[in-house]
User: Which sequence fits this backbone?
């Protein structure tokens, strides 16, 4: 862990666990991963998918793990890790942003995934109102413990060699991914999931998504913001007048993508640090 020149190394088809792998995939790899995920989930049908199968799918490539960052509304990460461990705490995925500017804080997204089964989000009981699924509550409980225990100093130390020279401390966001849209389509279920996402917060930095939400959100942002400026790589030199670059981008962008650029502060980073071109 913690080597800047880390390269993906596979163990049984999965990237090595508890190790940050540098994201050197192209933006189109993430787009294809999102489309592949939609197909995978559609083929699962009404049976859904087990947690271990989904963890194996995401853990097989950096591009697949990068989907999780886009679904959380974050820029593509520079490093990703599966089975990220500190002490006796373990989370399924950790995605690290390392901004070029020392004035922007590095950011860590910790993701806990549960299953995508019919009873993951809600389960029937004796009352009319469905009960929250045990797996959903368990996943949230694990993230709640991460937030409670903190480990901020240990987290900073563990990524110190990956994010150096920054003037602001590491920021952390937590995301729970569980269930499928087809198992929560009724209006009441949608309202309850929206209520949870908007009301139950871990320090105002908690996200919730279903697995097909992950695919939809990632595809949307890659298509909306990520394809028309792939020439802006992390190593591209800064020009004297940033506003000139902004005006140039607007001139070369379709009306829909102009709206996306002006409405999303991270739009110009959609190609992603470490993503390659």
Assistant:
């Amino acid at each position: 862990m913690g080597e800047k020149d880390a390269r993906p190394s596979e163990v049984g088809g999965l990237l090595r666990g508890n190790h940050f792998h540098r994201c050197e995939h192209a933006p189109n790899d993430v787009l294809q991963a999102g489309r592949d995920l939609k197909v995978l989930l559609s083929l699962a049908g009404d049976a859904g998918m087990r947690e271990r199968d989904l963890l194996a799918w995401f853990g097989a490539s950096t591009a697949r793990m990068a989907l999780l960052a886009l679904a959380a509304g974050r820029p593509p990460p520079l490093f990703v890790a599966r089975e990220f461990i500190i002490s006796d705490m373990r989370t399924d995925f950790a995605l690290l942003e390392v901004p070029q500017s020392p004035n922007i804080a590095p950011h860590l997204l910790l993701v806990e995934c549960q299953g995508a089964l019919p009873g993951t989000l809600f389960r029937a009981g004796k009352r009319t109102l469905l009960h929250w699924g045990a797996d959903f509550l368990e996943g949230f409980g694990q993230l709640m413990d991460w937030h409670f225990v903190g480990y901020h100093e240990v987290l900073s130390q563990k990524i110190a060699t990956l994010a150096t020279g920054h003037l602001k401390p590491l920021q952390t966001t937590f995301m729970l991914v569980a269930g499928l849209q087809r198992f929560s389509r009724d209006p009441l279920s949608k309202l309850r999931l929206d209520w949870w996402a908007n009301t139950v917060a871990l320090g105002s930095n908690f996200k919730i998504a279903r697995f097909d939400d992950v695919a939809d959100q990632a595809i949307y942002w890659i298509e909306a913001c990520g394809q028309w400026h792939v020439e802006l790589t992390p190593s591209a030199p800064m020009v004297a007048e940033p506003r000139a670059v902004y005006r140039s981008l607007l001139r070369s962008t379709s009306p829909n993508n102009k709206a996306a650029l002006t409405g999303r502060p991270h739009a110009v980073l959609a190609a992603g640090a470490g993503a390659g071109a």
